[in-house]
Amino acid sequence: MNRALCPVCGAVSEKVLSSYRSQYSPEDYKLYKCENCDMEWWEPLKMQCYLYEEGLFPGYEKLHSLPNLKLGSNHRAFFKNFPGPWSGRLLDVGCGNGKFLMVAKSYGFDVWGIDIDRQSVEIAKSVLGNNIYFMELRQFVKFAKERNLEFDVITFFEVLEHQDRPIEFLESIKSILKKGGYVAGSVPNRDRWIIDETEWDYPPHHLLRFSKKSLETTLKVAGFSNIKVISLDFSFKLKEWLSYIKERYINISSLQGFIRTILSVPLSLVFIGDLIGRGPYLYFQARKI
């Protein structure tokens, strides 16, 4: 019998939605759903850090060049919704080439970053200075505690869905967050208009699939308050969708998914009422009390 424990609430699930085999791993994965908290996750649930350290996933090469300051809708949501103050020490977990941090610095934050992609870290350092580190979160938490470092804001965009122990991840982040400080970030929206049939949203790359309910529950279980989760809207701007297509499908052979994404913009005009909150991302922010 198929049985697995929900990585968020601990409930036993026997509901398998689908299966998958990746070219990057010999594992046969099964997608489970928790009837208690609405989380979906893949078993075996194990993060493979070496895949990022060795740059094996297509698309990551774009993080190995100097960043431009053109932000995606997930990053823009932070600058639109964060309540302030726009100052203090900000840590971006999974900072990539430092694009978000460059904009955050222009707003007045003292910016720090960590990533497990060495090449991205070197690029970010070249534009932001020495407070960028090639470290896993647990290494950085130890580093920060040894130096009595605490942060006013900790962000992690498109990071939480990669975690095999999401509550432990969030509790580690909370341990170096000041009292009254904020976390903020984004995850792929499980209920987005286009479900990509490409490797980027499957294991061992993405291990968790969030709905608005399951994301709110995850932050609550981890002990955060003032939780706000926003389902970003589908964009009707052709320029944004061409950028999305390039990001998701460059060097990826998925003709069916590519064609469906191309057609999504004109087709979406027929279903405007159904597209509220069905963009690619869920943005979140929450507070440590």
TrEMBL record:
It comes from Thermocrinis ruber. This is Class I SAM-dependent methyltransferase. Pfam families: Methyltransf_23. Coiled coil: none annotated. It comes from the Bacteria. The lineage of its organism: Bacteria, Pseudomonadati, Aquificota, Aquificia, Aquificales. Gene3D superfamilies: Vaccinia Virus protein VP39.
